[in-house]
Amino acid sequence: MELFVKMALQAWDVQIKRTEKLINSLSDEQLLQEVAPGRNRGIYLLGHLIAVHDAMLPLFSLGEKLYPELEEPFIKNPDNVDLVVTSVKDLRERWTTIHSKLSEAFNAMSAEQWFQRHNTMTDEDLQREPHRNKLSVLMNRTSHVAYHLGQLMFIRHD
Amino acid sequence: MELFVKMALQAWDVQIKRTEKLINSLSDEQLLQEVAPGRNRGIYLLGHLIAVHDAMLPLFSLGEKLYPELEEPFIKNPDNVDLVVTSVKDLRERWTTIHSKLSEAFNAMSAEQWFQRHNTMTDEDLQREPHRNKLSVLMNRTSHVAYHLGQLMFIRHD
């Protein structure tokens, strides 16, 4: 695998591992709290990250989404305390499943594949803007996890 | 410039621009507030990002730090409301100055330079771990800005 693909994958892994470590250190009760007054609850951010990462499967032609039902409550809609979508325990399991699957699929991709267009772009788009490829999506998602990790950190009582 | 370097620089720019846009939309008074109860104030995160980014100049052999005096209050020490280091206005100006300087210097670097070791590594380190180069530092800093941007967003009253 080419060096820069390895670097981008490592940057992604670092953020996923940091987030995972934080989530594992928090109780279900803590994850049901808002990260700050009037802001999203931990469970919402957890579901949001799972749903956004799950969507990389079809976007990168790696298969269908595992959890299409999470898009509505965790991407299309804001947090809603009155709507119980699923349990924290269930989301913890889905977090592990989707990231294992992505890790396996990502590591099997060639450098050439990473520089191909993703599925919402046409061949002409890519010719005009060659930097908008799968690897650039991964780099954007890496910043996106970091963004929400900074918020999830506020749940900690330290 | 090689495609991958361009992608990493764009990912950095996206986070810097988003943070800048947020900072510009906040008043000095808002930036003097804590981002959440008991958490860092906006001014601290602003100074922290300036100090961390400033340190990339010597790290990448691009010159001396512009603001070495910011390291002590904004990196080595936690936020302290009783210590007035400087004004929000002054930090806004420094933000602009350091990011203009970095942007110019980064765009003048060749792809080869980005894959060289940074100044806290030896040649032997880089031979053993070739992915720990200047570009990997930039990618880590990109996640770092995103992390604190997620927190700064909480100052907004929307």
UniProtKB/TrEMBL annotation, chains A, B:
Record SUPFAM superfamilies: DinB/YfiT-like putative metalloenzymes
Organism of origin: Chitinophaga oryziterrae
A Pfam family this chain is assigned to: DinB_2
Name of the protein in question: DUF664 domain-containing protein
Span of domain DinB-like: 13-152
